[in-house]
Amino acid sequence: GETTFEDCLVSLNVLCDVLLTVAKLMYPLPEFVLIHKDESVLKDIESLENFRLNVYKVTLSQDRELYDVELHAEPNYPTLGKKFGVKSIAEKIRQMTDTDIEKLLSKGESESPLIIIDDVPIESEGVHFFFRVVKQTQFEAIAKQGCVVLLDYTADAALKDEGRIQEITSRIQKLRKEAFFYVNY
Question: Would you say the pTM of this structure is higher than 0.85?
């Protein structure tokens, strides 16, 4: 599919949120993984690798299976309302597989209804889709509108030491600036 301007903005917004979170840490992260199915979005994000990101390794991927990230569905009870058999419908929504959800999402939200379960038409507002890391790994997952970010928060002594060095350097630079002390070459 084509990358829309909105897709790029969403991906950049997620990336910005994540990087702001990372920037609050006092040490660099070992790895940052961005997963998106659209290669052109990944290429746009790749241009940011030249910035100082406080991350040792940036990995861009289209393969969610490699990181055990799956799509899941949950019923949106307020939207489903008191429809007949809502409990059985909710259970069938929860039991949808990653492949089932991919097929539904590929149809597009403009198609109405999104799915029919037990002769009840379910619109796209009736279901919440989200990404989840299936196996416990060193990564913490953040996902928004098709963009999955995995962060490795594990820190060894060397990373923590580097964080302290960065903090000391930053404070020295601030003090130098406040004192109007400039080095002339």
Answer: no
